[in-house]
Amino acid sequence: MSDVEVSREELLTRADVAERLAALAAALAGDEKVEVAFGATKLELHVPDEVRCELEIEVDDGEVELEIELKWSLARSAAAPAAKTRTAATRRVRTPRGR
Which of 24, 20, 19 is nearest to 44 (CA)? Predict the structure, then answer.
């Protein structure tokens, strides 16, 4: 069980999504403090130099889900592990040729 979980879902235009992702990317490229827009308020997160990133794409019943998950430890360690890349394909999707 999570200590804290905050969730929000809303319908946005592609341009709005792009603007929010660009703002998040700029914040992550900056210093350790990252502000995330969350409805009418903003959350400030402290993000270390190394972050685990997971990208998941799921196609099911005519719907596509793209999930980007960032994780980091709250504990500050002097010797952070080197970044690792892991790719796992859970399902192959075949599309008809010529369409």
Answer: 24
Which of these, 36, 14, 12, lies nearest to 24 by C-alpha position?
36
Q: How would you classify residue 13: left for phi > 0, otherwise alpha for psi between -120 and 50, otherwise beta?
A: beta
Query: What pTM, to 2 d.p., does this model score?
Result: 0.69
Amino acid in the structure at residue 85: T
- The helix (H) or strand (E) run that includes residue 23 is helix 14-29
Sorted by where each begins, the domain ranges of the chain are 14-71
CA dist., res. 22 & res. 27, Å (int):
9
Coil, strand or helix: which one is 45? strand
pLDDT in tens, 17-32: 999 999 999 999 998 8
